[in-house]
Write a structure and sequence with these properties.
Pfam family, one: GFO_IDH_MocA
Protein name: Dehydrogenase
Radius of gyration: 20 Å
Number of helices: 10
Structural class: alpha/beta
Family: Belongs to the Gfo/Idh/MocA family.
Bound molecules: nicotinamide-adenine-dinucleotide
Organism: Rhodococcoides trifolii
CATH class of the largest domain: Alpha Beta
CATH topology of the largest domain: Dihydrodipicolinate Reductase, domain 2
Strand order of the largest sheet: 12-11-7-10-9-8-15
Keywords: Oxidoreductase
CATH architecture of the largest domain: 2-Layer Sandwich
Length: 342
């Protein structure tokens, strides 16, 4: 492929986030074209392909993996299908963008990384927060030494409420493997070069206490101690009534950076009950520019034959922290990262 050819992308998984990603790839990512959509259920792929002008839709992923008209795949299927899809796509010679988590075991993470390495394809993972302008500027300030040595870090994710999900349909440990995994990556991104050493986690079902007995968890706090001495906190809730809330903070020996705001515009309403701002209710609104940024970076990596800016190894590191947090909840004790091997 020349550096000017559009990268021809097939979406795998036409659900909520896949539909968002496909629309961005089709209409807002320079150098990309959406050529195919695959989803095994009903007419989801056909409807999305028709809406976005993709020429191919299929219920069989083998059709896109075997197509000479597809350069890369964007995997937005459910978490537990990711590793098999990454491996199959890499073996078919396709570049791979995979939503988080890339895997739910370290063995699977290693398989995905090895498959991409041996095929020589780009493998990028969907830690989009790195591409949000505020988080990216925070990292630049840290790289420039402006906050000195990082000492305290915070990252949080609060999904918009009221939470209307069915606890029985939320896979076990989702809060760690699919929600906080963003925060674990953010903590590593904002503490560059440092390795996580020890993890402690507390989790509960504060939003749906009735579901706690069946293992449901919707609220969690995790501490991570890094090898440069920095102490970090990640927290998540499934239900913030005021809107979607994603923030980060790094406090260092010479200053502090914060990133993440929920306001949708700079309009402030002043009325008899006080002051109000409007907040985002959806990740696809709050973090839209970060999604466009990550897909643009993926396309650039493919066209310029550079490594992906968010690698399989980054996914493995965040996963290892998530697995340590799960073990900490199970045991009630701090967990050394070197105990997490599977
Ligand atoms: N980065 C982010 O901000 C972000 C946000 C939301 C979701 N996600 C991640 O994206 C993934 C999908 O989440 P979602 O909310 O869109 O889920 P979803 O359930 O809405 O959609 C999943 C889709 O995948 C299809 N599917 C199932 N098995 C498949 C297979 N083997 N091959 C292809 N398609 C298959 C389903 O039919 C469905 O249409 C999850 O891993 C989730 O953690 C990331």
């Amino acid at each position: 492929m020349s550096s000017t050819d559009p990268v021809r992308i097939a979406l795998i998984g036409a659900g909520r986030i896949g539909a968002n990603h496909a629309e961005l790839v089709a209409r807002h990512v320079v150098g990309a074209s959406l050529v195919a959509v695959s989803d095994p259920i009903g007419d989801a792929a056909a409807r999305l392909a028709a809406a976005l002008g993709a020429s191919t839709s299929t219920t069989d992923v083998a059709d896109v993996l075997g197509s000479d008209d597809v350069d890369a795949v964007l995997i937005a299927a459910p978490a537990r299908s990711h590793t098999e899809l990454v491996v199959a796509a890499a073996q078919a010679g396709k570049h791979v963008f995979c939503e988080k988590p890339m895997a739910v075991t370290l063995a699977d993470a290693d398989r995905a990384i090895a498959a991409a390495d041996s095929a020589g394809v780009v493998l990028q993972v969907g830690f989009n927060r790195r591409f949000a302008p505020g988080f990216s500027a925070a990292r630049a300030a840290i790289d420039a030494g402006r906050i000195g040595t990082p000492q305290l870090l915070r990252s949080l994710t609060r999904d918009p409420g009221p939470w209307g999900g069915d606890p029985a349909r939320v896979p076990q440990w989702t809060i760690f493997l699919e929600t906080l995994i963003h925060d674990f990556d953010t903590l590593c991104f904002l503490n560059p070069g440092a390795r996580p050493l020890r993890v402690t986690a507390v989790a509960d079902a504060l939003i749906r206490p009735d579901a706690k007995a069946s293992g449901h968890l919707d609220t969690a706090v995790v501490t991570v101690v890094f090898d440069n001495g920095a102490i970090a906190t990640a927290e998540a809730s499934f239900s913030a009534l005021y809107g979607y809330d994603v923030r980060g903070e790094v406090f260092g020996s010479a200053g502090m950076v914060t990133a993440g705001r929920g306001d949708t515009t700079d309009m402030v309403f002043y009325g008899s009950n006080g002051i109000e701002i409007d907040t985002s209710r959806r990740d696809t609104d709050l973090l839209r520019s970060s999604y466009i940024g990550e897909f643009t970076a993926f396309v650039d990596a493919i066209r310029s034959q550079k490594p992906a800016p968010v690698t399989g190894q980054d996914a493995r590191t965040a996963l290892a922290i998530a697995l340590a947090a799960i073990r900490s909840v199970e045991t009630g004790a701090a967990v050394d990262m070197n105990e997490v091997t599977a």
